[in-house]
What does this fold into?
Amino acid sequence: MSGMEALVQGRNAVENEYIDFGKLSALVIDDISSMRHAVRSQLQSLGINSVKLASTATEALVQVEANAFDIIICDYNLNNASSGQHFLEHLRSENLLSATSIFVMLTAETEYDFVASAVEFIPDDYLLKPCPEKKLRSRLMRLLDKRAFLMPVLKAINAKQYDVAVRECNRLLGVAPDERRMLDVLRRKADSELAMQDYAMALETFDRAASLRSDVPWIMMGQARAHYALGELEAAAKIAKQIVEMNKNYVSAYELLSRIAIDMDDEDGAYEYLCRSSAILPSAKRFRDLSQAAFLMGKLEEAKSNSLEAIKLSTGSMVERTGDYLSLAQVQVDMGDQKGAIETLEKTARKHGEVGLFGVAKNAILAQAYFDLGDHEKSQKLLERSKSLLANRKNSFVMTALGKSALKAGDVVLGLKMMTEAIQVSGKDEKRIARHVKKSMKDTGHDDKVEDVIDGGRKRILNLVEEANRLMRTAHFDEAYLKVKEAFAIHGENLDALMTAAQLHLLWLKQGGMNEAIVERAKDYLMRLDRLLPNNQKVMNFYRFFNEIVSE
Amino acid sequence: MQNALSALVIHDIKNALALLEIELEQLNHHEGVPVEGQRAYRRCLELKSRLMGFLTLYKHDQSGLNPMVSEVDIAEFLEDLVDASQSVQMGRSRQGHPVSVKIGPGGNANVGFFDQNLVELALESALNNAVRYAHREVRIWAERQGGVLTFKVCDDGIGVGMVDETVQRGEKSSSTGLGLALCEAVAKAHGSGSISLENVAGGGTLFCMTLHKAG
It folds into this structure.
């Protein structure tokens, strides 16, 4: 018996012991009814009793949200609106898929290559249609075998207990029977570390994987992403470029390169990379990003055509966004196509009504359009309506639209207020929003006030936070608290202010002793931080520190 | 339009064939399936592999194959291949005597980087060919040298170039002419790969498919 034969037979003996198909649940997604039923009967022949069927991605989505299937078998060619790949991307990017679910893509094509090798979100396996039952069985057994090995890790990931996941990974690394299993574990470990935002550790894990296997795209992509998160843009770009050199269709690498280019203020480069990724794998989200980038660069024609593509690809599907109509209408107004903008908002997007922030932005953009058409009275009414719908809501895009219509109508006070607030609440998106505000102010002839508005919002908060920090370091806790309170009055969820507030309160408790009110406030800040920055290492440390103090 | 139409028709045919295959497969699960049912299933499988082979070659000629390279565990891959192989299941040479297919001995490749489905399609046709001309046994294994991965299929038959080999290997059989061309196309798609067919000492034919950058 050769070594290979022994290996194969040994593995079979182990597999058959613990894989009980009767206990598994499966979902089959195919737009052709007879095919759905055929695959179901194959699965039933394997002993899987609980098999659900779905004919569209939307139907499947409902099923996936309600059940954690062990196995999902999805046809690649669903229909014109969305492919199996789009569905998978949606599930993974929205975190809707259980870590314990096995996703298998079924395709009739031998040339799904460009999709398969090009993206970040790949299924656990690809099977060529028709797939004989025997093959289906052996592929599923392998996947289930791998899943069984990783189970404690996958369960921890599902529960979002990434520290537990990492601990389990470390344990499994000690018992991994071969290099392949080791790579499986390292991958989950690195992903968990990324989720905890422990980028240095994640990089170390990816590096370790790279030392086992060179030139593996997911490992290289992980290294690039970790470098990027650590602010090492050049190192990240270097690896991402190596990836696309090896595989010119690797979409995720282009997307990372685009983000790096933006951070390096290379707008054209960023746009170019986005163009490539959406050409390779068109999706509503990619066209949306492209449209936004084009809009901010003043390429209105491109912004419009990409926006139309995004709408075309998403209409009636699970990735439909009302924001697409708003973006398109704003582009149309800026192009001087007021009638087109009105048509977009009043006819095409009629079904979306005036709900929530959509209503605010819709009325604001319509106000701009009617103002340009000379109907100042109607414009004023729409502007008032927009303002009243805004109430206490804060959203950068919406406030920019409202601000722009106010500036157009000559209400400089409201306009500047909206623009300043848009910057203040922009959070992680600050750079992009600042560009949007800048453009809107230039369009309405307020170039001269751009710096004031942008700096005004940002600087005021930063100054207050800085002062609070200084006061905190000299143990002037009461005064420091007044400063952060002032910062919160401008923007209740400013991250710098929240971090400082949390730190201040912890220190206050530590040095000043227990105080109910301070404990309550500290708890509140930590909760808000946790919501805004889930799994953040620093926030977790704060929590730990807080628990220590409180239990003392 | 012409192209779009043919693509649509082909897609349709593939789907219909897939369905037929599954239905026949499920039918064959029942006890006491008439021999015609078994034969129909076999014919369906043969037809499918011929169509897939043809379409892959067609794609190769038109625009070149674009392999989806992924990391493959060679032992698992070969086991699956032999397990699912139609010709292995039939296990009969063209003279009708039983032929067994074994993995190894030999082979030093644990992991490879190649398009599983394409290579599987090619090797299935190579296996099919080997089984037809084998005496008793066919062996399959993989060897790695640096970045070069070679799949080898060896039969214990009469060997190439013997007797009426040209007639034999070129006859109307389902996979031969098409099979070798397919293997060559798949090998080429993986870097500058190649295939070869040679006699082995003591009788038999050794088929090699070499994939560059796959090791």
Summary: Chain B touches chain A through 47 residues (CB under 8 Å). Residues 163-175 of chain B have pLDDT under 50 and may be disordered. The beta strands of chain B are 70-73, 100-103, 111-114, 137-145, 148-155, 194-199, 205-211. The longest helix of chain B spans residues 35-62.
